[in-house]
Specification:
Helices cover 52% and strands 14% of the residues. The protein is of the alpha+beta class and 147 residues long. The longest helix has 23 residues. The two termini are 29 Å apart.
Amino acid sequence: MTDFKNADFYECGTDAENTSVSAAVEEYLDAWAEPNFSPNSLIRKHSPIIVRAFKKMEIDERFYADTTEILLERASEKYSKEYGHPYLDDNLNFESARPLILKALKNLYISGKPCKQVGTVELSAEEVKAIMLKQRPDWWANNDEEP
């Protein structure tokens, strides 16, 4: 449970990165809410709700270096096979592309850092209602329904 509580973000079947369980539950239920909805009925209909917790992973420098090496080797081999002269040495310097490839790889992972699931919790209708009463009391205030 410690990993779950220390996660970077939570989700309930959406792709959003909510920073709390309550925000994830709210987003999930809000997606199903129709105009003039009954909060109690909505919660009963969609419970239990499974909340998944995720922790972002750091990519180490070795990954970038190894991947850059693989890409450079593959590009050189492919070029030689398809365009190279069979008897002459091609004067292409694939090594000069190393800093560009390395930078491109690092930029690729800035916005979408990989993550791993660190826990799952199943919330009952009662637990969901308790969360939503704190998170969105206005759902009941704007409705004739009792909490």
